[in-house]
Amino acid sequence: MDSVLAPSSTSSFPFLNNNSNNRIEHKSLPSSLCFFNLRKFSTVSFGYNRRSCRLRLSSSRRSKIKCSTSPTMSSSASPEIPQPKIVNGPGGYVLEDVPHLSDYIPDLPVYSNPLQDNPAYSVVKQYFVHVDDTVPQKIVVHKNSPRGVHFRRAGPRQKIFFDSDDVHACIVTCGGLCPGLNTVIREIVCGLFHMYGVRKVSGIDGGYRGFYAKNTVHLDPKVVNDIHKRGGTILGTSRGGHDTSKIVDSIQDRGINQVYIIGGDGTQRGASVIFEEIRRRGLKVSVAGIPKTIDNDIPVIDRSFGFDTAVEEAQRAINAAHVEAESFENGIGLVKLMGRYSGFIAMYATLASRDVDCCLIPESPFYLEGPGGLFEYIERRLKENGHMVLVIAEGAGQELLSESLQSMTQKDASGNKLLQDVALWISQRIKDHFSKERKMTINLKYIDPTYMIRAIPSNASDNVYCTLLAQSAVHGAMAGYTGFTSGLVNGRQTYIPFYRITETQNKVVITDRMWARLLSSTNQPSFLCPKEILEDQGHEESSNELLDNGKCSPN
């Protein structure tokens, strides 16, 4: 193992003593140096504004980090937002690490993890996650590919940075409803209580606004015992209400030192701002996020909790639409599903159903009239089968609502664009087209189950996933990590920096094989480009050839 010398303002660093009493001893070091362990890494970039660190390997296998302190930074000045915490290793290894309380607070006491004395863990061969365990973001590589980006593996650590008796944790839920919210709340409370002996857990009522506008709710295992059987959230939720200064003031005044924030990308963006303000004030407060979005539009992670439940429940609406359509001559069943910017629910529900004839999502533009358009396809399916089922995500086709483009600039309290009901609009357009232009009788039934799906309890699969997310967040916070989101990456629980969760959105790739599977299942046209029929003699129909970027060829 290589030891690394790193400058620090602290005069001592805690080490865990291996004696029988598991006591912590503080061993004095020179005020300019502190030791920590590093395995096989060639470069460490801490990125925290006061220091610019560069690591050099020497032949003696002891590496030194030289750090320069900014001469313009005074002790009273507000530090800038830190850069990502990156560790580079051999073979193109990159660890996008998460912040730790010890990064900005010196002389933190360290405690032994009480899990080693927990009877429930007595059968576990390895109590704690190894300090070097990381999870790769990309697992499909070539033999000469670099090892790529990794994230820190989640789980209990041998050393923790909070005394259980001193912990005052709080939980807040923000944004829209999603199956599994109550399960996450329950497992955070029970994990803190049963695994770490924490007795003081508060619930923030009504989202971010509840930090400064409402009283807290006391939570313990008895209070949350059966809430996982209910939909919604027992803490209440809201959009907006994010006032960073008031929120952090409330955290500080209430003596809260662990904050668990459950919400989507907008909520996690707010959590990142809260973390930065807490770090700026130098508070010993861990901020942990649990990603929540029914649309599955959070990047990096395999999936978000509630997604499996939403796809499963969407089957009921699709089955009902199919029964209605099949029972009438020229019957059309139209189902609107969630998916503001990402069409994952519509895509997976379509693939699972096998009864859907056409699926429309925000990532795949489509058009209504003309050769190869939606109307032509509907007419062909009705002539072939006598009925059809159409699934549309709520964010699809918004650009077609030309008469409502002005309203598309309006946003809700969370900053999301206010969408028009495209499914209702398309329903009316379909009726008008076939009754007036084609003189063809159709029977269209429109089903909107969106809010029914959001409000149901999570299924068994999501319940297990919520448990893993919640317990991983608890382990991370107790170990002193902060400014992270707990998420599943390639089937492993990880700690992901906030900036990776909020920098982009996860969307369906319409040039990917999964979308191709859907097209082969429904036999719908891709709608990538309308065929331009040229009237001039000697001209052929335009090509539908795709470029590498997924756009149509201009030729």
The average pLDDT score comes to 82
Number of helices: 12
Shape descriptor: elongated
Distance between the termini: 60 Å
Q: Largest sheet, described in full?
A: 12 strands, mixed
Q: Specify the helix fraction band.
A: 25-40%
Radius of gyration: 27 Å
Give the strand tally. Answer: 24
List segments where confidence is low: pLDDT < 50 over at least 5 consecutive residues.
1-44, 46-79, 530-555
Task: Report the portion of residues in β strands.
Answer: 15-25%
Overall structural class, as computed from helix and strand content, comes to: alpha/beta
Catalytic activity: beta-D-fructose 6-phosphate + ATP = beta-D-fructose 1,6-bisphosphate + ADP + H(+)
EC number: 2.7.1.11
Pathway: Carbohydrate degradation; glycolysis; D-glyceraldehyde 3-phosphate and glycerone phosphate from D-glucose: step 3/4
Protein name: ATP-dependent 6-phosphofructokinase
Describe the model:
This protein is of the alpha/beta class and 555 residues long. Helices cover 26% and strands 21% of the residues. It contains twelve helices and 24 strands. The protein has helices spanning 181-196, 210-213, 244-254, 265-281, 307-327, 344-353, 374-385, 422-437, 450-454, 460-478, 498-502, 513-522, and strands spanning 2-6, 12-16, 24-28, 34-38, 43-45, 51-56, 63-69, 85-89, 93-97, 111-112, 134-136, 148-153, 159-160, 169-173, 201-204, 216-219, 258-263, 286-291, 331-337, 358-360, 387-393, 443-447, 484-489, 492-497. Strands 5, 8, 9, 11, 12, 14, 15, 16, 17, 18, 23 and 24 form a twelve-stranded mixed beta sheet that branches. A four-stranded mixed beta sheet has the order 4-1-7-6, with no helix packed on it. The longest helix is centred in the middle third of the chain and has 21 residues, at 307-327. The radius of gyration is 27 Å and the shape is elongated. The N and C termini lie far apart (60 Å). Mg(2+) binds at residue 265. The active site is at residue 295. Catalyzes the phosphorylation of D-fructose 6-phosphate to fructose 1,6-bisphosphate by ATP, the first committing step of glycolysis. ATP binds at residues 176, 239-240, 264-267. Its main location: cytoplasm.
